[in-house]
Amino acid sequence: MTSAGDPAPPPPGGVLWSLAGDLRGLLMLPAALTLQVAHPAVGAGVDEHSVFRTDPWGRGERSLRSLQLWIYGGEAAVEEGRRLRQLHRTIQGTDTRGRRYHALAPANYAWVHATGFPVYQHASRYLVRRLTDAQERALYREWLQVGRVLGIHDRDMPQTVEEFWPYYRKMLAEEVEATVVVRELVAADRPVPPPDLGPPVLRPLVAAVWPLLLPPLARFRSFITVGLMPPDARDALGLAWSADQERRLRRLCTVIRLVVPALPERLRYLPLARSARAARHAELKARGLG
After folding, report:
1. Domain range spanning residue 25?
2. CB-based contacts of 167: which residues, under 8 Å, 6+ apart?
3. C-alpha to C-alpha distance for 23 and 60, rounded to whole angstroms
4. What is the rounded CA–CA span in Å between residue 66 and residue 158?
5. Residue 81: closest CA among 10, 21, 15, 137
6. pLDDT on residue 6
7. Is residue 196, in this structure, part of any structural domain at all?
């Protein structure tokens, strides 16, 4: 149940509203998730408590739905934020540097959220368009609003873009590292079980051909994860990236930029985003603004 004092999701029609529900947003997520677990505490928490190895598809589906709720869920956004905080209350341990950690410690929880902004800002240049200064500032304000939905206090996050970049660079210089989970997420040969999703009748077929499908899919995931990560973060983690890989990424993204906007609405946007967009369109039309 929400109350009048609860934070609202970011505004409909904003920069984040346009980016996060678009299919191209799916290609940005692996880089953000990998940068999250580059923090020793976050990496240790995922290594010790997550099911990403045994149930990667289920975890990915749940994480994606959670992200969509933060932005397009309306009142459900606040409930999802509470659910996530409750889920993480018991996650604690010792990180790779011998420090005690708790998932909800402000520095750790804020970093998990903060990583989305530089990845969106950077990957948009490849997959959508370069953001203007005004759009970048709007995106950061909207990302801060999502943080409030998640229960992150303003005092724990830089409050302007100008304050964010020094914080981010300091984290890259002093905190992040190629944790065990980072190395697994960028590996092109990591064993992944076949997806247990979709119509049950198709699952035996997918399992049968999975040994053939996995190698190219794993190589693509590694390529897009490293390629769409901001170069300074890539360098901080010691991830190799060649000029030839950069050229291939740019060619691929040129095709994506041309193809995705031409898709019909039902194919271009994820379900929650599509429903929210339809509701907004109906509202604007009813007000004579659509």
Report:
1. 15-187+205-286
2. 114, 158
3. 15
4. 23
5. 10
6. 82
7. no
| DSSP-assigned letters across all residues of 248-268 | HHHHHHHHHHHHGGGS-HHHH
Predicted pLDDT of residue 64: 92
> Residues for the chain: how many in total?
290
Which amino acid, residue 226? V
Taken in order 4, 6, 7, 8, the sign of the CA dihedral is negative
- Residue with the two structure tokens 């092109």: 188
Tell which phi-psi region holds residue 115, choosing left (phi > 0), alpha (psi between -120 and 50) or beta: alpha
For the question of whether the overall pTM of this predicted structure is more than 0.85, the answer is yes
- pLDDT of the residue at 88: 93
Answer yes or no: is 62 within a domain.
Answer: yes
Q: Which two tokens stand for residue 269?
A: 């946007």
Alpha-carbon span 222 to 187, nearest angstrom: 6
Angstrom distance (rounded) from CA 159 to CA 145: 10
Residue 195 lies in a domain: no
198 occurs within a structural domain: no
Q: How far apart are CA 18 and CA 24, in angstroms?
A: 10
Q: Which segments of the chain have a pLDDT < 70?
A: 1-4, 197, 289-290
How high is the pLDDT of residue 113? 95
What residues pair up with 94 in beta bridges, in sequence order? Answer: 100
* Inter-CA distances, 171 with 37, 119, 233, 278, Å: 13, 15, 10, 40
Report d(CA 223, CA 30) in Å as an integer: 10
- The total domain count for the chain is 1
